[in-house]
Write a structure and sequence with these properties.
about 210 residues; alpha+beta; 8 helices; about 20% strand; globular
Length: about 210
């Protein structure tokens, strides 16, 4: 059901933009606090371990559960705390474009549902296992298995980079919700299709 709602939301956002004359914004609101002087900062040796990746993922979900316990899960705030500057810059570019075209960006970015954190599950989310691999010296992949409030099971892939002295999430990938390539690819494709420029936002390693 959530997958269907997510698809409808994207279609609705695209349809509305077309009806508004495909109005788009060139560039996004990229705060200086969000963009590192260097994407991969010099990191202490203890960060370059699978244990450090696992600890950061657990920290992120501890934060999510703490928000939930206090009444509201703020997806934007979670992204700002735990995602890379490239992810945030691209998100901001899309947000600015949709807000100018529609007056609202929630239909695309899905703040209310929070797919990219919840793996289609409700809170609180208990992490059962985190399996991390260091793909290179500054990039990692985490396979996270969850148990939800109703004892249901969930799964999420994440890609992370070292930035500003900590591991930060570059991409959320749950095939049932996002399809091939994960949430970052959805944002990249949407930006490309609608002329939303995110030039100047540093690209992830391995991309042109």
């Amino acid at each position: 059901m959530k997958k269907v709602l997510f698809t409808i939301a994207i279609v609705a956002a695209v349809t509305t933009m077309v009806s508004c004359g495909n109005k788009t914004a060139k560039g996004g609101d990229i705060d200086s606090t969000e963009v590192a002087d260097s994407i991969v900062a010099t990191a202490p040796a203890e960060l370059w371990t699978v244990e450090a990746v696992e600890a950061q993922v657990r920290k992120m979900y501890d934060r999510l559960n703490d928000m939930d316990k206090n009444g509201i899960v703020n997806i934007r705030q979670l992204e700002d705390e735990f995602c890379t500057s490239y992810y945030l810059g691209l998100r901001n570019a899309i947000s600015k474009s949709l807000t100018e075209a529609m007056g609202d960006d929630h239909m695309f970015l899905g703040d209310e549902e929070g797919y990219r954190f919840f793996a289609g599950m409700g809170t609180p989310l208990e992490i059962e296992t985190v399996k991390a691999d260091l793909l290179t010296g500054d990039m990692a992949q985490a396979q996270v298995r969850f148990k939800g409030a109703d004892e249901e099971n969930g799964f999420m892939w994440m890609e992370l980079d070292i930035e500003n002295g900590q591991w930060r999430v570059k991409n959320f990938d749950q095939p049932e919700a996002f399809g091939p390539g994960g949430y970052l690819k959805i944002m990249q494709d949407f930006a490309g299709e609608h002329g939303i420029s995110y030039e100047g936002i540093p690209s992830p390693k391995g991309e042109d």
